[in-house]
Every structure is written in structure tokens, then in C-alpha cells.
Amino acid sequence: MTTKLFGEPVRRREDARLITGRGRYLDDIGSDALAAAFVRSPHAHARVVDVDVDAALDVEGLVAVYTYEDLPGPLAEPLPVLIPHPQLHAPRTGYPLANGEVNHVGEPVVMVVATDRYVAEDAAERIVVTYEELPVVVGVDAAREAVHAVHADVPDNVAARHHQETGDADAALAASPHTLSFTQYIERSACMPMEGKGVHARWDAGDRSLRVHTSTQASTSVRAAIAAKLQLSLDQVEVVAPDVGGGFGVKIVHPWPEELLVPMAAIALGREVKWAEDRREHFISSAHERQQRQEITVGYDDDGRVTALDVHVWHDNGAYTPYGIIVPIVTATQLVGPYVIPVYRVIVESVYTNTVIVTPYRGAGRPQGCFAMERTMDRIADALGLDRAVVRERNLIRPEQFPYDHRLTFQDGRPVIYDSGDYPGLLDKLRALVGWESAEELRADAEARGKLLGVGMALYVEGTGPGPYEGGHVQVLGSGKVLVSTGLTSQGQGHETVFAQIVASELGVPIEDVEVTTGDTRRFGYAVGTFASRAAVMSGNAVALAARGVREKALRIAADVLEADPGDLEIDEGVVSVRGTPGAAIPLRTVAVLSNPLRYAFDEAAKQATQFARSASDDKPPVAPGDAPGLEHRDYYSPIRSTFASGAHAAVVEIDPATWEIDVVKYAVVHDCGNVVNPMIVEGQVHGGVAQGVGGALYERMAYDADGQLQNASFMDFLMPYASEVPDVVIDHQETPSPLNPLGIKGAGEAGVIPGTAAIASAIEDATGRRIAAMPISPTQLYDLVRDGSSETTAAWRRRTGVDA
Amino acid sequence: MKPAPFRYADPRSLAEALEVLATEEGAKVLAGGQSLLPLLSMRLAAPATLVDINRVPGLDRIEATGDGVRVGALVRHVRLLEDVVAARVQPLLARATANVAHPAIRNRGTTVGSIAHADPSGEMTSVLALTGGSVEVATPAGVATVGWEDLFVGPLETSLHGPAVVTAASFPALPDRSGTAFAEIARRKGDYAVCGAGVVVTLDADRRVERVRAAYVSVGLVPAVHDLTDAVAGQPVEKADWAAAGALARTLVDPDGDLHASADYRRLLVGVLTERTLARAAAEAAERTGA
To answer: Does the interface ipTM go beyond 0.90?
Structure first.
């Protein structure tokens, strides 16, 4: 990079619009549209015996009522299994509306369409559904015991048994000088974007075309799904992701039932129809993540070096498996982190429960994997009486070992080969940043204030930017405007800014001239979606390649006009000039005009491109063979495999031994996502991720009761941290460029959330001396743990306090 | 999350409000709406009529005298929080109100509304009890004063029935040689308390502990005042064993468990908060007693 915008903390250009109420979110669209509301199952597991809609029919303003029986053609089939996998031996998906059985509270049974949402809810309330309740399975342990089955034809509740191994684990464990075995749990949380899901559909009967707006992370794929399920040709369907108020993973799942049913109703009724999810619906009918039971056995030597690792995970996938086993695979493969694991065996059993489906939530299985690996490191250190940082250091992959092949297969079907990194560098920076070596002084100081202080750390490696591809289109207009589009969608991350930075840098134009459009199938029809920290890596490189194509063509045309060699030209501030020859220059906008040979002049600029304006060679066509009119280029980036970002976090907690309140007093992050496009945006991503990490560690928990009722389905009882609960975050950067892509970048979207649970658990354990084997943990749970005489204590605590176990 | 249909009445006088309440069955009074509107949106409540008293004149005053503070039905939490005269007469008011939710809620929610809502997780029900306060209730028959002991019947339930508007709450002044303190522990700042404690310590002329009373938030089904005097009676204020008072408090309460705290944990916090607030209240009482 020679231009200055790449790598600069350019202010987010979307913010002024979004924070002053000028965003256009789903519910801002279609103010006259009919409204859909849903009758959802109040039971976690039941047969639907009867649906009686009669009482709703006399509600004034009711337009239509749909049940399963009303679904035509492919809509009556189960929803797609989006990501099939050979080890997903018993995939099950729901129907757009329940077909005789419901498997979680919140599953849609009836759709009501009315003149507005109030009326729709009035009508929905009057619909009487008769259920015959069935036994309910809640939690991994109940699923595993399989006394009852979620799906009658899957009696063991096991949807998938994902298995990878890199050697003979049993033999390696048997040969290990030491082994440790333990079991731990991690609970359910959820993405909780500020804006829920939502769909608006408009059918143009004359044109026979459908325009759908949906709050999605994958508009091109929603388009394909709608076309398939509604039996339309792809060219009849447009899908647009408007401003999306957060996604964090839940909006990558598609098609949601509502994404099919709302367009279906719009076509059937010939009216605009809209559904905007409310918060309770989001809690009980979108998606959650994270519950796992982890059984871990590790072998290690006297120095604390791991010799073998054997992990058996039970993963709660909820009622259905539309997103396949992506989360189990990510846990299985990302668990190994930055460490050399000579022999590794992992089995993840993905089990059904009568709860909301489990699909990727920022981190997507990595926080669980990190929790498993990092707590293993803590246990080894404790058993050997070593510093936790030292044990980690001894196990790190060294910088000279890259590319490092873990001999595993990642979520993209490609090998887990780390492309680059400097893990000892991360650890050194982290120790300095958090003051690791002075922990005992901090502890003594806190003790003098009546507080228990603990420190913890956790490292991670995150596979980011998986394929298959993304594309970019760059076009320079005669006005000088540069239009950039890519198919993947934005949910507030700052794509408009970073893609503009990349194109402005590549092309040599002022960033103010660059306009970015994302997630609109009218502009770009080929895309995969926004997930797995891939937008900057995938679309960033795609728009860079597209910009390079435009630049090459611009230089070719300008060279012709300026009678110079293209190699002697440069573009800066939107002007092409001959290097070292003042005055020999042509604005890029003029090049754009000249790139399109015209017969008709529609304005002053266009005159320059008309057939009598320029002397051109008589023996060549105006558009050369293989060339195309216009200064534009479309290109795609398709990586050979994922690129692996990394980082290290440390938390310092203080605990009040009277109330057992837990306060994270310091949180340190060292972050490596390769070349950084915009450090301010990366830091913002880290801050947001840490907030969700703290939430997952100390506050958030989906509290299902034994009947499968979600007890805290509101923001009053589901405790996301407020700003007042999120600690100040100190950040240090390390940049280890990726050799895999032209820009040398790695993903940064999810990183911040990954190590939070592991680092905070470690810090609480350090402070209290009680083994923390289940997260999240709240003060009331910590109180139970410390007053329970049978709680396991750490060796470090026994040494420190002189207490015999 | 859209309310069921309801009729909306917008009376311009108390008489008009009472008339609507008397004639329309299932009518509910709307003041700040911070508790009622979420219940409506979740369709957990579906009153046929909402009687919005916000345009009824005369209900928006705070009157502080030497005897106490009278708070009108339309006084928002934030005004009570910022009223320095009221805070001087009865310091518990501002101290407790500071713990009521977040600024956005304090800007709209009313102190009297939260008392009429009778939520045992609300701060002001406990403060009404601890100060020995009362409410004024307007009915078609006239205005009656109802003491706190006769007001709270159960969670979200008062003894009021038929057409009635709670027009004011009165909080007696802090007695001489007394100090107060209020503290809460919540999962997140501004949440409903996992446990809250308000205390009043009164000394005798010799700076010995004469009387100790405490009331708790989110502990028990209805507000209650616990007399903790026995644990510390007659002890010099500087040396009083507040931990013993905390221990006594733990034996007197009967908290429930919920998602955020077990009953045992609440009991633990009752002890801790009692001890901590008593130390602060005693210091204030000592200051107000003089040497």
C-alpha cells in the first residue's frame, strides 16, 4: 500500500446517518403494509391436535390466516438443512408452520395477517390451538440420558457425532508422564441484536416480480431460498438487506419461516406485508448458542508440555439442525488454539433438546473451545505448581513453525493450517499490558481493601475469512463518483467505511467520492454472507481486486490520451498524471467518460466521448475485442483456505468476600488480525466483543426450566451487561500479515468475545481458590460454591493460604 | 408485544377521573406508565380503560414541612431525587430514589405510582413502610388516609378496591438524633435490587443506640419493618455491634429465591447490607445528636 487511507483510523462514514435516526431499518419500510403476527407454541414438545381459527374471523381488520394446511408446494416441506455434513447423520428441521408437532416453545403454528400489528395480535390471541403435550428434553445431560426423545425417530437424541483425531490418543495418554481428567459446562446465551429479525415483501403483479427486504446477513442466499420455495425464477426475486441493527450470527440463518411466509402472503394477497419481530419472539423463536458439557483428558510432561488431548463434548443443538454442525466443528477444531498438541482426539456429540435452535453466535463455538483448552492449561499449571503463563509459553507454536498444520479439517472443509502468527509475541505483550508479574502485589493491595483479587488469561486462534468466495464491483462514473458494491451484508460493522478506504487507496481517489452498497441483490447477485469474521478478508480483497482492474483499465485509456506508457502513470486524488511531467494529466472522471464510446451526448462531459469528438484509429473498432464499455470491473476473491487471526486476553477481577460480587477491574487485550484496514474499527470490534465476553462470563444465561419454558425471555431478566458492567479495555496490537490474501488481512469481528469466559473463570478461580468448572457464574452461584465444603480448591490457593486440602 | 384494545380516558379533574373509574369496569389509572405499559405490551394486563391522570391539576407537588414530605401522584422520581428540601426533612427519599432504575425511567415514573403498584422489588414501598408513611386515597366518597400497614396486601396487590386514585404519599420527617442510610445490590446498575436495605438509627441523648429499624427491598412478599434494636440497644454509637444487628436481621427475614439470587444469598445480603447501612446511618445520627 502506498496511499495513506489503508490503515488509518478513518471515522465511520455511516455513523452520522445511523446515530441521528436517518438509518433505514426494516421496520422503517412499508408503513402502509399489512402486518403479520404469529401464534407460537406455548409448549416445548407437543402434538398439534387442532387449530380453531373461528374466533379470530370476526376481528375487524383481519385479512388472512394461514396454517400448515395452507402452505403450497415446497413450502409444505421441511426447511432446508443449510449445511449438510456426512457426520450429521440425523438432521431435522422444522416447517414454516408446525406440521402436527412442535419441538420448542415459540415454534410458529399460525400466521395471521391484518391491517396492523395490533389487530394481528388481537386476532392471534383468539386462535385456539389444542395440543397434546409430550415429554420434554432440556439441557445436554437430559438429552444425553435420552429417557425421552425430541424426535421420535432419533431415540438417542444424537443428531451428529463429529469426530476428528490426529493420532492414537489412548496410546499417547497411556505414555504420558501425567494425566488430568475433568468435566466442565458452559451455558446458553444469544446474539441479541438491538434490531430483531424482520421481513417486508412487495409483489408487483404486473411485472410478476417480488421485492423482499429482510434483516439478514445473507441476502443472496435468502433470494435463492425464496425463489426455490415459492417456485419463482431467480430473476423475479430481489432481496435487499437494508440497514441492519446488528446480527452477531443469528441473521445468517435462513430462510427463517417468516422470510418465506411473508412473501407468500404478499403474493397471495397482492398487498405489501411486513413482519417485525418483537423481543419476546426473538428470545423464543430465533436462535441461541453455547451450551456444552466438556469431558477433557490431557496428558503432559513434567514441564507442563501437552503430550495428548482427548476431548468429548456434548453440544446442545436445540430442536433442529438447520445450520448443520458448524458450531460443533468450530469448537472441535479451534479448541487447540495457539498450542502444539502432539496427539488430539475430539468427539462432539450434537444433541437435540426441546429448546430454541442453536446456530452461530459471535465466536460460534470458539468461546467453548477456548474455555476447554485454556482451562486445561490452568489445570496443568496448578497441578505442577507453575505459573499459568509459563505453561502456556512452553506449549505455544513457535513463529518459525508456520505454516502450521494441525491435521484437522475446518468448518470450510479445508485443512486447519495456520498461515502466520507470533504467539510468544502476543503473550509477552499481554504480560506487560496487564502487569502479570506484579499480580501478587495487586492481590496484597486488594486484600488490604478487603477484596479478593485474581488474574486470569486466555489465548485463542481464530480461523477467519472462510470461502467459498465474495465478489466486488467498482465503477467510476463520468461525474467522478466511484460506485462500489459487494453482495455480503452489513450489520453496523463499518463496511461502508473500510471498503471505501480500500477502494480509495487502491484507485487513488478521495474517499468522499466513493459510495459503497452492500447486501443488495439488485447490485450484486453473487455472495455468500457475513459470518465467521470474513467481510474484510473476503469482500475487502474482492473490492481491492475490482479496484485494481479499474485502475489498470483507467491507466490504459489515459495512456492512450496522454500518449504515455501506462507504466509511467499514477493516480492520485482522482487525477491520472504522467509521473514527473507536470501538466500531463487527465481527471479519472474524464477517463470514465472516454471509456464509453458514445453516439449521443447527453451533457457537456459526454460530448468528449462522442464519435466526432476524438480522432480514433479507423482500423480498430471503438470497443476493442475482449474489452467492454465503461470504467468498471468486477472481480472475486476465493481463498485457498481460512486465515488465522489470534489474540490474548487477561482479566483482573476483584471479589467482595461479603457479598461475592465480581468486579472486572481491568481487561487487557492483545490482538493480531494481520494488516489492519482501520484500527479504530478494529478496536471497536474488540470492545464490543469483550462486552459480549463479559456478558457470557458473568451475566447472560438462558434459563430454561424443566418444562422447556424460558424463564427470562425479556431484557428485564436476561442480563446483558450495561456500559456500567463492561470494564475499560486496554488494547495492544500486533500485526502478522496473512500470506494468503492480497491485502494481508485477517478477520476481526468475533475475536473480542472468544476468550472472555476462559480468562474471567481463571481470574475468579485465582481469587477464590475454588475450581470454576461451570460458566457463566453469578454472585449467588459463587456464594454457593465457596460455602460448600466439598468444592474443589486449587493447589495454588492451598499453597498460598497454607490450607491443607 | 402490542397491547390489547383499551379505551383511553383523559380526565381534567379528579372528580372526572373518579367518575370514569366508577362507571367503567376494569379501568386502571395511568400515571408514569413505567410498570403498567410493559404489562400491557406483553398482554399480561388488559384493562378495558386507562384513566390517564397526567392532566389532573394539583397532583404534581412536593410539599416539605417540619413534619414530613408529601409527594403528589404526578411527581416523577427525578424530582424527588433532586429536591434538596425534601432530602433535608427525610434523607431516605433521595437516597432510595437514587436507586430507582435508570434516568430514563426516573424521568417518567412516579413515586406514588410505584407505591400504588405495590411491587416488593420497588424501593419506595419499603421507604414508605420504614418511615411509617401513608397514602391519600381519593374515592367518590372523599379522601381517606391509609397507613402503609393497611395498604400492602401482597405482591402487586393493595387493599384499595373500587374507584380510587392514590393522590399522594406522605413520609414523616426523620426523627431527632436519627440517621438513615439506604443501599442496594443489583445484578446490573439500575436493575431491580437482588436485595436492598434502608435503615433508621435513633440515639438517645447520651449517644447510645435507642432504636434501630430496617426495611428491605426484594425480600418478602410485602414491605415490612424489622426492629433490630435488641441487638445493639444501649450500646455507645461508636462501639455498637452492627454485625450483631445484621445477624439478627438475617433471622427475621424470609426471602424467596429467583433466577438471580437464592433465598440463602438474599439472607446473606440482608446481613451485609444491614451492617453496612447501619454503620453509615449511625454516623449520621451521631452527627445530628452532637457531643
So the answer is: yes
